[in-house]
Amino acid sequence: MASSNKKISKRDTGKLLNEWSQEFAVFVPSRETGVATMAKWDGKDTSFLDWHRNTVIPPKANFLPAMEEMFNFQRDKEGYHIELPPQDKHKQLIFGIRPCDAKALAILDMTFSDSYQDPYYLSKRKNAVLVGVGCTKAYDSCFCTSLGISPAESTDVDLMLTDIGDEFLIEAITEAGKKLISRSRGLAEANEADETRAKASKEAAYQKVTRQLDTDNIKQRLLANLENKDYWEKIAAKCLSCGVCTFLCPTCYCFDINDELVKQQGARFRSWDSCAFPVYTEMPMENPRVEKWRRVRQRVYHKYEFYPMSFDVTACTGCGRCIRLCPVNWDITQALNNLPAKV
Amino acid sequence: MTITDISHRRKFLAQGNVYLPHIVIIEKIIDETPGVRTFHFNFKDEKLREEFSFESGQFGEYSVLGIGEAPFCISSSPTRRDHLEFALQRVGKVTNALHRLGVGAEIGFRGPYGNGVPLDLLQGKNLVFVGGGIGLAPLRSLIWNVIDNRDKYENIDIIYGARSPSDLCFKYDLDAWNKDKAVNMVTTVDKGDENWTGKVGFVPQVLEQAAPSAQNAVAIVCGPPIMIRFTFPVLEKLGFTPEQMITTLEKRMKCGIGKCGRCNIGNLYVCRDGPVFSYAQIKGFISKEY
Ligand code: SF4
Ligand code: SF4
Ligand code: FES
C-alpha cells in the first residue's frame, strides 16, 4: 500500500536541488567558508547529505545576517535622501535545516512580528521555504528532547526529510510543502516498508540525544533564584563574556545599530550584539549589568523565564551550540539543573 | 486636545519600514544649562507635520545621519502643536553631534514610540509631579498637557530639583508655573550659590517636607535613577501605594520597538512596554536590574 509520502534516493537529491534552484536561491549546509553554515548551493557538491547534525552557524543568519545594511543616504543641496538597499527578490530555500533550528525560527518570528513588523527579517522569512532533514546522530551537548523537540521531526518546516538508508522519506508539512512536492520531478511514492524504516530512523535519532535538562517547574525554580547572587556569581565565574554563545544561538536576536559615513554618503547597519557584553546596556551615567553574573543571569532568564512570559514559549531549543562552542564549556543545562531548590 | 489611542498610534507607525527615519528640521535651539539643550523641530514633509500625533511620555529615535541614533522623549506637549521639542544632555557620540548642529539642520526622527502617560487615569486626581535635572523633559510635556486642560484635574504639586541653580532646566517653565496660582511649585537645589534664595535640599527630602497628601492622588516621578530610587520610599511613607506612583525609565536603547533586546527589565522592554511604568509594575525588578 502506498502512503501519502514521497521518497527520493540520495543519489538523485542533487537533481532535485538543481530543479529547485530554478525557482529558489537554494541554501545547503556547507563548510566552504571554514565554518559550517547554510550557504548558497554550488550546484554540485552534495557531501552535506552525509552530515548528521546541525551547523555551527545557525540558519537564523539567513534571516538575521550578522551584519545587514538597513538603508543608505546621501546629502545634497536639497538635504538628505534615504534609500533602501536593493532587495534580493529570490526566495530562499533552506535545505537541511534541523528541527531545533526550524523551531528557533518560529521563536524568532514572534519577536520580529510582535507590535511592530521588522521588515528586514520578515521579508526574507515570508518568502522562504524550509526543507528539514532529521538528525541521525546527536552531539553530547544536544538536549532538544528535553524541550519537547524531536531531532528527526518538525512542524516548523515545509517539507521534512528522514534518512531511510539510501533514500530520504519526504513528508509535506505545510500547504507550501505539498505544492512544492506536487511540482517536483523524480519523486517516488513511499511504501509501507519506507514508513516503517522512517519510524525506526526517527526513534533511533531520539535515543541518540542523551543530555537531559530538568524542566520540572523551571519557571518557578528560576523565579525563586532570581536574587540568589551567590549562585549566579559561582555559575558565572568562568565565563569570558566573549559572546559566542549568543551569536551562535539560533534564538538569540539582539542587534546593534550603527552608522557609517564617507564624505556625504553613508549607511546604517545592524549587526548581532550580545547581552554578554557590558557595553550592551551601558548608559552615560550607569550600567545595570556591569557585573558579569547579571549578564549571565540575563541570558538564562531571557530564554527560560522572560520569553515564556511574553510569548508562552521557551527561547531555547536545546541545539547545544552554546555548550559545545563555548571556549570554557559553560553549560546552560548544568546551570539550570543545579538551581538550588531552597534559597 | 487629542489623546491618541494606542491602536491609532500603531496604525500610524505600521506604514512602511519602521526603521526609516523621517527628516525633521531644527527650528530653534535653547541653551538650558551648560550641558543641556532644547531643540524645537518640525517635519520636513508637510503631510507628516499635519498627521503626526503623540502622547506625553512617548519618545522618538533621533539621528544625525552618519553618526548614529539616540532616544529622547518628546518634551513638548501634544496640546501645543506648532512644533515639537526634545531636550538632551551632551554625553556621548550622538548627543555631541546633535549639540554641534544649528538652526536649519536636518536630522532623522522616527517615532513616537512607547506607551505614553495614561492621562485617562489621571483625570479627577490630585497630581504630584516630582522631577530632577533633565528628568523634567518628559514631565513638562505632561505638566503643560494638564495645565492646558486644567479643569480635568484637581490639585497640582510640582517638586523639582537640580544639582545647582545653573543645572535647573526649563527656567522659563519654572517661572510660569511659579506664577500660576493653580499650581503649587517648589524648586530646590542640592547646593545653592551666592544668588540662590530658594530651597536647598535633595528632591526626596524636599518632597517629604512638602508632604503632599496621598488622598485621591497620583505621583509622577522623573529624574536620575538615584533620585527615583530614593523618591519611591518617601512616597510610600506619605501613604502612596505602588499603583499611585508612575515613572518613566531610562535604559540604553537602539531599536526603540522591542526588537534589539537591550532595554529589558525582566520581561518588560522599556521601549515597547514603557517608558512609563507604574511602580507596581517594576517594584519586583527595581532592586536588581534597574
Ligand atoms: S560562549 Fe561561554 S565564555 Fe563566551 S560568553 Fe558564552 S558562556 Fe561566556
Ligand atoms: S541557549 Fe544554547 S542550547 Fe538553547 S537554543 Fe541557544 S545555543 Fe541552543
Ligand atoms: S530599544 Fe531595542 S528592545 Fe528596547
Would you mind describing this structure in some detail?
The complex is a heterodimer of chains A (343) and B (290). With 343 residues, chain A is an alpha+beta fold. Chain A has 2 domains: 6-207, no CATH class; 218-337, no CATH class. Chain A has helices spanning 10-23, 99-113, 119-126, 175-182, 192-208, 218-224, 229-236, 244-247, 292-311, 321-324, 332-337, and strands at residues 2-9, 24-30, 37-40, 67-76, 79-83, 91-97, 129-133, 159-163, 167-172, 188-191, 255-262, 265-272. In chain A, the strands form 2 sheets. Chain A has an 8-stranded mixed sheet, with helices on both faces. Chain A has a 4-stranded antiparallel sheet with strand order 5-4-12-11, with no helix packed on it. In chain A, strand 11 (255-262) and strand 12 form a beta hairpin. In chain A, helix 7 packs across helix 9 (292-311). The model of chain A has no long low-confidence stretch (mean pLDDT 94). Chain B has 290 residues and is an alpha/beta fold. Chain B folds into 2 domains: 3-113, Elongation Factor Tu (Ef-tu), domain 3, CATH 2.40.30.10; 119-289, Rossmann fold, CATH 3.40.50.80. Chain B has helices spanning 6-14, 46-51, 93-99, 119-122, 136-147, 171-179, 203-210, 225-237, 270-273, 279-286; strands at 22-33, 36-43, 59-64, 68-73, 84-89, 106-113, 126-132, 156-162, 184-189, 199-200, 217-222, 245-248, 264-265, 268-269, 276-278. In chain B, the strands form 3 sheets. Chain B has a 7-stranded mixed sheet with strand order 10-9-8-7-11-12-15, sandwiched between helices. A 6-stranded antiparallel sheet of chain B has the order 4-3-6-1-2-5. Chain B has a two-stranded antiparallel sheet with strand order 13-14. Chain B starts with 5 loop residues before the first helix and ends with a helix. The interface between A and B is large, with 51 and 41 residues. One iron/sulfur cluster binds next to helix 10 of chain A. One iron/sulfur cluster (SF4) is lined by residues 249-251, 303, 316-322, 332 of chain A.
